[in-house]
Amino acid sequence: MIILFAAGHVLGPKIWMGYNEDVSMLDLARRKAQYSIGRYGQDARVFDVTTGGSYNLVEAACRGCDLASFEHSNADDSVDEPNEPNRVVVYRTVLNPGDGPCRLIGQACADILNTTLSPIQHRENSNGSDWYGVIKRAMTAGCQDAYLIEHGFHTHGPTRDKLSNPAVRQQLAEAEVDAMAVYYGWKPNTEEGDDMIKYLEKSENVKLWQRALMDAGFDLAPYGADGSFGPLTRTKTNEFKNAVGLPIDDPATVTLVEWYAMQAYQKGQFSDDGITQADLDKQIAKTKEALLIVAALQDEMQGLKVSVANQQDDLTALANIEKVKKEILARYGLSV
């Protein structure tokens, strides 16, 4: 996936009481891109809208990208600090109805900024197209999805203070990208086992898993998504595993297998009684297919090994094939 993270206003900089929205949000965009690359190996790019001052340049920057994320922090016309109304608002293109990844991303922002998340917006103009020029141009350029994240109101004193803090912007960058990873199924660049959520862990990843459980109908009241993998979350996690036919472990853990299963479960790909024999047959067929692919890759790799002595291009190809093999194995819960 090729992602463009962008920040700024084509109508000029937005500055309020010393807070420069464009500078702060461009920094957030860069941090999100860096984290996307470093943590998940995504092809992430950054564009500063203010450097161009033109929607045409926004469209040009979005060409060839699959997804565009625009980082803003809004202003309110009436100023009554610190009692300004404040919330996180996420706008998604009208061509993609529903929340998509936006609710996960917005809630991650709201948790860090200690505010609330408004319903995901799909704002249209009179022609039924996107109201916001950056979103409209991203979709015109061929992006599959685009959204604009208003990280609260910078005319709200406490929020402005947080958004002015680089450490908070780093927290936002990581939490938002982690939320995207959950939705899109990105695998983190970690050693085996590092991507596991463990019993009694307290983290943002636990919050994401808890929200996924609740969205799938596994009630976590009265605690909700508190970020603590306690006994209730353990019980509901094992109930989910039982529902989809995954083995129950104690103490409970959540690996990429559970994340993939959760995505399938939320898409209605499991029956109410768990995995049917037909489901199992399909999974077995997929696993066999994966093994055949791996075997073919291994054959190709053996052929490459003969000619790699003085050919750097073949060495690069060999590394890429090894990476693909590991990804296929990991996808089906297998190891090298």
Q: Any overview of this molecule?
A:
The protein is of the alpha/beta class and 336 residues long. It has helices spanning 21-40, 49-52, 55-62, 102-113, 133-140, 157-163, 166-184, 204-215, 231-244, 256-266, 277-306, 312-331; strands at 2-7, 15-16, 19-20, 43-48, 67-74, 89-92, 145-153, 197-198, 253-254. It has 3 domains: 2-184, Zn-dependent exopeptidases (Aminopeptidase), CATH 3.40.630.40; 197-266, PGBD-like superfamily/PGBD (Muramoyl-pentapeptide Carboxypeptidase, domain 1); 280-331. The protein is built from 12 helices and 9 strands. Helix 1 packs across helix 7 (166-184), helix 3 (55-62) crosses helix 5 (133-140) and helix 4 runs antiparallel to helix 7. The chain is globular, with a radius of gyration of 22 Å. The model has no long low-confidence stretch (mean pLDDT 79).
N- and C-termini, Cα separation: 25 Å
Bin the strand percentage: 5-15%
Find the CATH topology of the largest domain: Aminopeptidase
What's the main sheet like?
5 strands, mixed
List the strand order in the largest sheet: 4-1-5-7-6
Query: How would you spell out the order of helices and strands?
Result: EEEHEHHEEHHEHHEHHEHHH
* Overall 3D form: globular
Q: Low-confidence stretches at least 5 residues in length (pLDDT < 50)? A: none
